[in-house]
Write a structure and sequence with these properties.
The complex is a heterotetramer of chains A (561), B (258), C (116) and D (348). Chain B is mainly α and 258 residues long. Chain B has 9 helices and no strands. Chain B has one domain: Four Helix Bundle (Hemerythrin (Met), subunit A) (Up-down Bundle). In chain D, strand 11 and strand 12 form a beta hairpin. Classes of the chains: A mainly alpha (561), B mainly alpha (258), C mainly alpha (116), D alpha+beta (348). The structure holds heme-A (HEA) (2 copies), dinuclear copper ion (CUA) and copper (II) ion.
């Protein structure tokens, strides 16, 4: 095994000699065995794996609903399912994808696994609360499934009042309590991260030596802690209104239905940044590693995360522009929306310039990261369309929005999640994923994704409303394209499930640092020990210091096992 | 920002580090020390910081209801004023005092733990509980009164007293029926807010019971005060919520009543 | 319990670790003063409610409540002796709460302005 | 933005013919589209820029060509550039969007008014002349039409893509939108706010007619009773005239000429009486008590449908003199109660 990483080859993967390599004898996976040792664990890495398994499960349930939605929309007629079934499908799709998949996706899996290691700590500050958070998540998930099995909900993921409080007799309260409980799971995750990042950094790990992944998760955690409780109270009020019907949200009794919207979006707009910020952190790590270069303008990228988190609290009413907020508020919120878009732009350009003068290789995580940058740029800029008052009038509540948020959430966050999963897979499992299959699947998802959602922009401008079970026949061609794309996309997402599962047993042994990355997590064995570090590291180098890494690699004789 | 940037325990431990291993020698640490913290200090500070963050979520949680209250109070001021006058100020004021006393006992409890006076600590925790329960008792009485007057929002809610106060020997100006209808909003918010507050108290009393048990075993009289302190933060926060609820709910437009 | 095997193992000197922002112990006397202040202001707030001050009534009530809350936070909750981090955290919480209130309220207030 | 009109028309026609673009059938549409194309342009530029950087660097600095990376810290100048330029562009977009917003939601003074009621799951349009339509709306081209809309149950949203206008139809409160149709034809009408099971069935058509055809249509489909006439009947049958009869002894204020006036309320504030205020003072009378009167008017919440309220409001709007109020004692056969032809339906 060569010590110098600068071999002229297509890949920087530094795998140990596979004929002799073995996984480390002692690691967090085999430290204890038995079902209970997982269910009662306090180890952040094991909890991360629990989360990973559960969110994957829910992703595919949500994906199955997406498939059904697209199948129904293949034809203009309402032929496949009944109207209320369709409504239940997109509601469950939205609820599951957002609350049970995307919000916990990167933070609760990768963040849980990596943040303590990245800052040189042995665990998160509150391991028991971390475990509790997973249980709350599971209770929330179970309640969602219960709502599903009992007959579903058809409120949409936005629970618009007075529809949800007085006009639907589906299992709204079950679904609301599911989200309530899952919300506390995310509050506890965020709380844990903030305390850990403030209080448990290793000696020498100053704020500006932290990897950007930590920064962005920190920013997202602030949003989780301060935003989620407002959603919780909004849902409590919905449940009360439904059961005793007092009229806080009911205009016929003097209430204001927009009050609910204010409370809901006060959380749900910051929530979209909860969803994207951790993904942005992943992209910073991946881009830097595979161009072997420090992230361009580290401080700007770090602060832009915080800026997004801060400004993210000031723009929520852009979801209510035409719903009856005052013109004055519409103006203010539109202006602030423009401001919040700027830090994202900063990040995009900083990533692009990270590549400059780098030494770039194109492993799967890098492909996903490129996909992220392109798709998020489209998604983000179409967000600016929506933030522009006059244009939002035409675009709101159409497929343009559906396309916008799938571009940022699927094209952005989901791609970032996949980038991260591939990137840290060797660390988490000790084994490599198969490189060429995974590249193929990255390309398939990219093509499938664009085919699915690009036509929806056009549909949206043509005026096709969202949440429509049947639509006028003139929209069919574009819908067929979209459905075709979704099929391709489904394949693209199913493949990782298969080959990553396969690699658990048959993948090549990864070694400590296959990517020659600089983060602390790469300086320990893979999979790590339960206590992460044998010796608490003393940090003397900046983040992304590849020269430091080179020196270090030259000195040490790498052993595995 | 300075103290954010400096690693909180960066320097004091440095010499220790190279030799330290994950296998802790138990005699250097307290039993309550968790393995992943470097020092007691770090653990303690993490605990209280975590508690504060949790209280932030509580602020926002109650914040949503406070906003709803603010909005409807402005919209339906006459209804809110009249409905508020149906609340029992003496009981509310006494309850405020009770709660403050309970908070005072809690604070003394923290002190007792800090100076390691076990008996006094247990006594104070018990008193905290007693006053907490007393508060809930008064609350139950108030709720009962509302029940008797059909002021509990829902099907049996009655606006009769507000439309025709004279018939009920209430010294109030009558409200027109449509405005009177909005008293229900007031009572809904009253029950939601005080109910949520009471729920926090009940949870707190549950935890208090557990703390008393542990304090009685002497767990907190050896300098390990974090649980007491953190619970104190929670308890005082619940007090603060009430400090706002009391004037907002009970004291609207009292001077016109008589 | 003195017989508890854990308690007398080791004197945890680092609770008052000199290297760190020292752990301030508030005396019962100070707590007593705070307690009295709170009681007195509770009295004042009830009294003030029965005096007709026009639109100032709710303002006074809220000011008193805020004052009491600050006292509780500073003394009962020891924030006066806490690190800057904790103070900033609390500030952030109230800031976000104010954002919620003011930005939402500005919508309701400006609805009456019609086109403006 | 000013693209040459010829080019513009060509572009729009071409896109429309390939079904990628909705027809431009109102005076607003070109304004919306201009902003849309501007933003599309920015998006394409941004995407090309980002793409060029990514691909350019990837090719130029790939491992094979550039085995050793050169570490760069960052560059304040560059970073300032890509902070300020996007910010400037976004601010332009904001201003442009805001101007457009007020153009769409600020009706010209001379627009004719049509009422729209949304309910699960149908649209009901009420023309001042008393013509009722379900799930369709006939409008004349070439003159501004304002819709005053309200929902009977949940949020709905009235959307006409070809006109580029849309507005939420809110329960409990009037919302308005206006447009000026340019091309006769039939266009989509969608409910775009999710409103329950049959949301996707809450569709209809907008029929834009030339003024002459529209005239014909109003004539053919009149029900014989204008909204105001209906309102007049209601006014009598609900007992409003017991108090609002314009006599000196009346317990309620005279409603003649109240529409459009400024009222002083008992709490000292002043309000402009518009449709929304009239509706609200019937449903929540004690909310705003007119100075000099006792809050004795009962609430009619739950007793009058939204249709009825519209009739009443229309009726009160037409009461311009005490004389008309006296007339209400006898249900009038008057055709003066409300104009039936659009040319007379000019808002005061
Ligand atoms: C991950 C989730 C996510 C993210 C990150 C965003 C990001 C943004 N969103 Fe989006 N949004 C959603 C998820 C998200 N959104 C969802 C789920 C909905 C619908 C909810 C529902 O109703 O169901 C929604 C709806 C939504 C609306 C409401 C539309 C409506 O209901 O009418 C608006 C309006 O302003 C909006 C705006 C924005 C803006 C301005 C951003 C910005 O943050 C984007 C910033 C990014 C960029 C601007 C790109 C990078 C910039 C460059 C590369 C510079 C390019 C170069 C030049 C300018 C030259 N979004
Ligand atoms: C994280 C968020 C997320 C993700 C990942 C997705 C993923 C997808 N979404 Fe989703 N979507 C939302 C969030 C998300 N969506 C939200 C919030 C809404 C709004 C809901 C509302 O209006 O309330 C929405 C609405 C929405 C609509 C609009 C419905 C309507 O308004 O009528 C459509 C239509 O095309 C759609 C399509 C898709 C597709 C094709 C995918 C694809 O990317 C999915 C690809 C994945 C798969 C296809 C799974 C592959 C696996 C299998 C096929 C195996 C299946 C297994 C079994 C059957 C056992 N989504
Ligand atoms: Cu009405 Cu959708
Ligand atoms: Cu948003």
């Amino acid at each position: 095994m060569s010590t110098a990483p600068i071999a002229i080859s297509n890949t920087i993967v530094q795998l140990p000699d596979q004929t002799t390599a073995t996984l480390p004898k002692r690691n967090y996976i085999n430290a204890e065995s038995g079902m209970l040792s997982w269910l009662l664990t306090g180890d952040h890495k094991r909890i991360a794996m629990l989360y990973l398994a559960s969110i994957t499960f829910f992703f595919f349930i949500g994906g199955a609903f997406a498939g059904a939605i697209r199948l129904e929309l293949l034809t203009p007629q309402p032929d496949l399912v009944a109207s209320d079934t369709y409504n239940k499908m997109f509601s469950m799709h939205g609820i599951i994808m957002i609350f049970l998949f995307l919000v916990p996706s990167v933070p609760a899996t990768l963040g849980n696994f990596l943040i303590p290691i990245m800052i040189g700590a042995k665990d998160l500050a509150f391991p028991k609360i971390n475990l509790l958070s997973w249980y709350l998540y599971m209770i929330g998930g179970t309640l969602t499934l219960a709502a599903l099995v009992l007959g579903g909900v058809d409120t949409g993921w936005t629970f618009t009042t007075p529809l949800s409080t007085h006009y639907l007799n589906t299992h709204v309260i079950t679904a609301a309590s599911a989200i309530f409980v899952a919300g506390f799971a995310s509050i506890f995750t965020g709380l844990n991260f903030i305390v850990t990042i403030h209080r448990m950094r290793a000696p020498g790990m100053t704020w500006f030596r932290m990897p950007l992944f930590v920064w962005s998760n920190y920013a997202a955690s602030i949003l989780m802690v301060l935003g989620t409780p407002v959603l919780a109270i909004a849902l409590v009020l919905v449940a009360l209104e439904r059961t005793i019907g007092i009229g806080v949200f009911d205009p016929t009794k003097g209430g204001d239905p927009l009050l609910f919207q204010h409370l809901f979006w006060f959380y749900s707009h910051p929530a979209v940044y909860i969803m994207i910020l951790p993904g942005m952190g992943v992209i910073s790590e991946v881009i830097s590693t595979f161009s072997r270069k420090r992230v361009f303008g580290y401080t700007a990228v770090a602060f832009s995360s915080v800026a997004i988190a801060l400004f993210g609290f000031f723009v929520w009413a852009h979801h209510m522009f035409i719903m009856g907020v005052s013109n004055f508020s519409a103006l203010v919120f539109s202006l602030l929306t423009m401001l919040v878009a700027v830090p994202s732009a900063i990040k995009i350009f900083n990533w692009a310039f990270t590549l400059q003068k780098g030494s770039i290789t194109f492993e799967t995580p890098m492909l996903y990261a490129f996909a992220f940058i392109g798709l998020f740029t489209i998604g983000g800029l179409t967000g600016v369309f929506l933030g522009s008052l006059g244009l939002d009038i035409h675009l709101t509540e159409t497929y343009f929005i559906v396309a916008h948020f799938h571009y940022v959430m699927v094209g952005g966050m989901l791609m970032a999640f996949l980038a991260g999963i591939h990137f840290w897979w060797p660390k988490m499992t000790g084994r490599m994923y198969p490189e060429s299959v995974s590249k193929l699947s990255a390309i398939i998802s990219f093509i499938g994704f664009n085919l699915t959602f690009m036509p929806q922009f056009i549909l949206g401008y043509l005026g096709m409303p969202r949440r429509y079970h049947a639509y006028p026949a003139d929209f069919q061609v574009l819908n067929v394209l979209s459905t075709a794309g979704a099929t391709v996309l489904g394949v693209g997402f199913l493949m990782p499930l298969l080959y990553l599962g396969w690699s658990l047993k048959y993948g090549a042994i990864a070694g400590n640092n296959p990517w020659q990355a600089t983060g602390l997590e790469w300086q320990i064995q893979s999979p790590p020990l339960t206590e992460n570090f044998l010796v608490t590291p003393i940090v003397t180098q900046e983040a992304y210091d590849y020269e430091w890494l080179e020196k270090k690699t030259k000195q040490e004789v790498t052993t595995v096992g | 920002m300075d103290n954010l940037i400096a690693s909180p325990h960066a320097l004091e431990d440095q010499e220790l580090m190279p030799g330290e291993t994950v296998v802790h020698e138990p005699h250097t640490l307290l039993p309550q020390h968790r393995h992943h913290f470097e020092t007691e200090e770090q653990q303690r500070e993490a605990g209280s910081f975590g508690m504060w963050l949790f209280l932030l979520t509580e602020i926002m949680f109650f914040g949503g209801m406070f906003f709803a209250y603010l909005l409807y109070r402005n919209w339906y001021y006459p209804a809110f004023a009249v409905a508020s006058n149906q609340l029992n100020v003496p009981e509310g004021a006494i309850n405020t005092a009770i709660l403050i006393t309970s908070g005072f006992c809690m604070a003394l409890g923290v002190w007792a733990a800090e100076v390691r006076k076990k008996k006094f600590l247990v006594l104070m925790l018990v008193l905290t509980t007693v006053f907490g329960v007393a508060f809930l008792g008064v609350k139950v009485d108030e709720y009962h009164e509302k029940y008797e007057h059909h002021h509990i929002p829902g099907a049996s809610f009655s606006i009769a007293e507000f439309v025709n106060p004279a018939a009920y020997h209430i010294d109030e100006r009558p409200l027109s029926p449509d405005m009177a209808q909005h008293t229900q909003l007031f009572f809904f918010l009253y029950f939601a807010m005080t109910g949520m507050h009471a729920l926090h108290m009940i949870i707190g009393i549950g935890i208090l019971g557990w703390l008393i048990w542990r304090a009685n075993r002497g767990e907190f009289s050896t300098g390990y005060v974090a649980p007491i302190e953190n619970f104190g933060l929670y308890w005082h926060f619940v007090d603060i919520v009430w400090l706002f609820l009391f004037p907002l709910l009970y004291l609207i437009n009292r001077h016109l009543a008589h | 319990m003195a017989s508890n095997p854990h308690t007398d193992v080791h004197d945890p000197a680092n609770i008052t670790n000199p290297e760190h922002a020292e752990h301030h112990i508030v005396t019962p006397f100070q707590y007593g003063l705070v307690f009295l202040t709170l009681l007195v202001f509770t009295g004042i707030t009830v009294g003030a409610a029965y005096v007709n001050l026009g639109p100032m009534n709710p303002v006074i009530a809220l000011l008193i409540a805020s004052f009491k809350a600050v006292v509780v936070i500073l003394f009962f909750m020891h924030v006066r002796w806490q690190s800057r981090l904790i103070k900033m955290t609390i500030g952030a919480g109230f800031f976000t709460f104010l954002v919620l209130i003011t930005m939402t309220l500005s919508d309701y207030i400006s609805r009456a302005w019609g086109l403006w | 933005m000013h693209i040459s009109p010829v080019l513009w028309q060509f572009l729009v026609k071409w896109l429309h013919a390939s079904a990628l673009f909705p027809a431009e059938a109102s005076t607003i549409a070109p304004y919306t589209d201009a902003l849309y194309f501007f933003l599309l342009l920015i998006t394409v530029i941004g995407l090309v820029l980002v793409g060029a950087l990514i691909f350019g660097f990837s090719i130029r600095y790939r491992r094979q060509r550039n085995p050793v990376a050169t570490q760069v810290e960052g560059s304040t100048l560059l970073e300032a550039t890509w902070t300020i330029i996007p910010l400037a562009i976004f601010l332009v977009v904001f201003v442009w969007g805001a101007v457009l917003y007020f153009r769409i939601y600020n009706p010209p003074a001379n627009s004719m008014n049509i009422y729209v009621i949304g309910k699960q799951w149908m649209w009901k349009a009420e023309h001042p002349g008393g013509q009722h339509e379900i799930n369709s709306l006939h409008v004349p081209t070439g003159r501004p039409v304002q819709l005053t809309m309200i929902s009977q149950d949940v949020f709905h949203s009235f959307s006409i893509p070809e006109f580029r206008v849309k507005r939420e139809v809110v329960p409990g409160r009037y919302s308005t939108v206006w447009f000026n149709a340019t091309t006769p034809g039939t266009y989509h009408l969608f409910c775009t706010q999710y409103c329950g099971t049959q949301h996707s069935g809450m569709i209809g058509e907008i029929v834009a007619l030339t003024p002459e055809d529209y005239e014909k249509w109003t004539q053919q489909s009149t029900s014989g009773m204008s909204l105001a006439q209906n309102g007049e009947r209601l006014f009598a049958s609900m007992g409003c005239n017991a108090c609002h009869n314009g006599t000196a002894a009346a317990r309620g204020p005279s409603l003649a000429g109240v529409y459009g006036s400024h009222l002083t309320l008992s709490n000292g504030s002043q309000v402009l009486v518009n449709e929304a205020y009239l509706r609200d003072s019937i449903l929540n009378p004690s909310q705003h008590v007119t100075a000099g009167f006792a809050p004795i008017m009962p609430t009619y919440q739950g007793q009058i449908s939204e249709d009825g309220l519209i009739d009443l409001v229309e009726y009160i709007k037409t009461l311009n003199s005490n004389y008309r109020v006296q007339q209400t004692y006898v249900t009038s056969q008057s055709n003066q109660a409300a104009p039936t032809t659009p040319s007379e339906m000019v808002k005061p």
